[in-house]
Amino acid sequence: MMLRNFSSKLAVFGFTAALGVLLTGSICSAQKPPVANYDESKVGTYTLPDPLVFQNGKPVTNGRDWAKRRLEILKLFEDDVYGHSPRPPKNIRYKVFDVDQHALGGKAIRKQVSIYFSPTKDTPREDLLLYLPAGVPRPVPIILSLNFRGNQAVTSDRGVKLAMLWDPKTQKQVRATEQSRGSDSTFDVPKVLARGYGFATIYYQDIEPDFAGGWRHGIQPLFFKPGQTAPAPDDWGAIGAWAYGLSRAMDYLEKDKDVDAKRVAVMGHSRLGKTALWAGAQDTRFALVIANCPGEGGASLMRRNYGETIPSMMIHFPFWFCGNLRKYADHINDLPVDAHELIALNAPRPVYVTAAEGDQWADPRGEFLAEVAAGPVYRLLGAEGLGTDQMPALNHPIQHTLAFHIRDGVHTVTEYDWDQFLNFADAHLRAK
Ligand code: GCU
After folding, report:
1. Are 89 and 74 in contact (CB under 8 A)?
2. b/e map of 325-337 (b: 16 or more CB within 10 Å)?
3. Catalytic: 411?
4. How far is CA 389 from CA 96, 178, 371, 407, in A?
5. Residue with CA at minimum distance from ligand 1 atom 7
6. Number of domains the chain is built from
7. In this predicted model, what pLDDT tens digit does every residue of 81-119 receive, in sequence order?
8. Could you report the per-residue pLDDT of 280-335, keeping only the tens digit for each?
9. Helices (H), 283-322
10. What are phi and psi of 184, to 5 degrees?
11. Is 81 part of any domain?
């Protein structure tokens, strides 16, 4: 999931396909995954939908127009890509079950909070782990990220509650082990705190487990209409549910006086990078969005036939999206939106998308071109696009209101990535 380090592109595909099996439990044997293309000359031709033209053909010429056009685009993503999410609850129910004023050797204040998705039932709920930098005037800006391996994996702090992890094979929950503490090297909590930011995280499968049919064990049934027994074709999929969980975390952060809720960055890697983009698109309280290697179904242009494609995702991960997306799998050019518009839904807020040379599956160029194509919306709103349509060299970040880098290495989050994110956050959220 986190690492993809193969020189042979076919091996990359094989690994990812196998991963799909692992994560979904099984794949339908009748469906063969399409062979991934890695030849730029075979990407095909496409015309991107213009974010600055209304569906009735009229141009979008100012900020007021954009506010309306934005709603059109949002609805298209809800109808055909991620599905419709329920409205936010009127009140949120949460319980701060742990506070340690001297965590991480005195460098942090730790809080742990259960956030309930139902006004009456105690499950499902998400457990938020929050660290605030010690000795820094509060309220502080926060970086909020879903994590893959449980809250206990992001730090070796023994005070962190061991998560209940979902096993995709048995489709049952198992308590994370003591040994798993600090095992997720994609986070560097001390580094974030040292730069003056708080760090908040949630195990993503607290919200909905990540396998086909996982919705049965997650938050979706809480919102079914009377008599409803399964998600409708335009109901949210897992990405929508995970994004909803991020927004409920934001509800809590707004209540916490130690947190500056106007300066919360939402960050995610890979499928959780797709989720961060969709969370920011729907919930404008997120001040900044960081999508690390988000790939297809996130920042990569879906119309480009390179690396992972929507037809492939419809075999391995259809449940991440709404049922309607399947209709476009064989004619993606008819999908009324593309990834540049997902980025543009976040405008004029800062968005950072990353790519990695060894992550061709995610289509680095497709991620870059989506940001380029979101640029006109940013410029219309008086912000900056990427300022270039030339893919930068490896390890040469471009950081304006839109930011992008491609680094050497594989599909993961590295120290280098974090350094860039914190520089970007400093420029826009000004922690210092
Ligand atoms: C698979 C999937 C990607 C996804 C990645 C991840 O590789 O094909 O779309 O981004 O898993 O989330 O790690």
Report:
1. no
2. bbebbeebeebbb
3. yes
4. 47, 48, 9, 18
5. 16
6. 1
7. 999 999 999 999 999 999 999 999 999 999 999 999 999
8. 999 999 999 999 999 999 999 999 999 999 999 999 999 999 999 999 999 999 99
9. 310-316
10. -95, 95
11. yes
Per the annotation, the verdict on 118 as an active-site residue is no
Residues in the chain: 432
Whether residue 5 is contained in a domain is answered as no
CA angle 76, 355, 391 (to 5 degrees): 90
Which residues, other chains included, contact 226 with Cβ-Cβ below 8 Å and sequence gap of 6+?
Answer: none
Residue 171 counted as domain residue? yes
Closest C-alpha to 275, from 249, 305, 255, 314 = 249
CA of 270 to the centre of ligand 1 (A): 6
Phi-psi region of 180 (alpha: psi -120 to 50; beta: other; left: phi over 0): alpha
| Half-sphere exposure (Cβ direction) of 152: Cα atoms closer than 13 Å | 15
Beta-bridged to residue 402, according to DSSP, are 351
Distance of CA 54 to the CA centre of its chain: 27
| 3-state SS assignment for residue 379 | helix
H or E element, residue 394: none
Output the ligand 1 site: residues, CB below 6 A.
1, 16, 19, 270-271, 295-297, 308, 361
The answer, as to whether pTM is greater than 0.85, is yes
Q: Which of 114, 247, 270, 312 is catalytic?
A: 270
Q: By CB neighbour count within 10 A (0-12 exposed, 13-18 middle, 19+ buried), where does 392 fall?
A: middle
CATH code: domain of residue 56? 3.40.50.1820
Q: The domain containing residue 73 runs over which residues?
A: 10-428
Distance (angstroms) between ligand 1 centre and the Cα of 141 equals 29
Q: Is residue 273 part of a domain?
A: yes
Task: Please name every residue paired with 290 in a beta bridge, in sequence order, or none if there are none.
Answer: 267, 352
Q: Are 406 and 366 in contact (CB under 8 A)?
A: no
